[in-house]
Design a protein that fits this description.
By secondary structure, the protein is mainly α. The protein contains three helices and no strands. The chain has two domains: 59 residues; 49 residues.
């Protein structure tokens, strides 16, 4: 074998190994996406208080993520308001927020 054919064989083996690695990573990525979708469906089912099967497998990941984020934001706001209402300073903050909202509403 000539030196150039040995180099060519080595390069082909290296490219073949890289392609195999790329294929493996692609398969792993698909598995992870499927797991993420399954977990998001479980979270949304919990939020909606329904079975996982009733959350459509066709619902896009982004839609499921938005629903989860909106629910978290809603509950955070409720917890914050309840905690603020427990103290004098907190109640004053809530009053100021209501006042600001009323002013903003009257300006629009």
């Amino acid at each position: 074998m000539t030196r150039s054919s040995l180099l060519w064989d080595a390069e082909r083996r290296e490219v073949s190994e890289l392609l195999a690695r790329l294929d493996s990573l692609h398969r792993q990525r698909i598995v992870l996406i499927e797991q993420k979708h399954r977990l998001l469906r479980q979270m949304v089912a919990r939020i909606r208080n329904v079975s996982v099967e009733s959350v459509s497998i066709l619902e896009p990941l982004s839609q499921l993520e938005q629903e989860i984020e909106a629910t978290i934001a809603y509950h955070q706001a409720n917890c914050e308001s309840r905690l603020l209402a427990e103290s004098d300073i907190g109640r004053r903050i809530l009053e100021l927020r209501q006042w600001r909202a009323a002013l903003t509403g009257s300006l629009s």
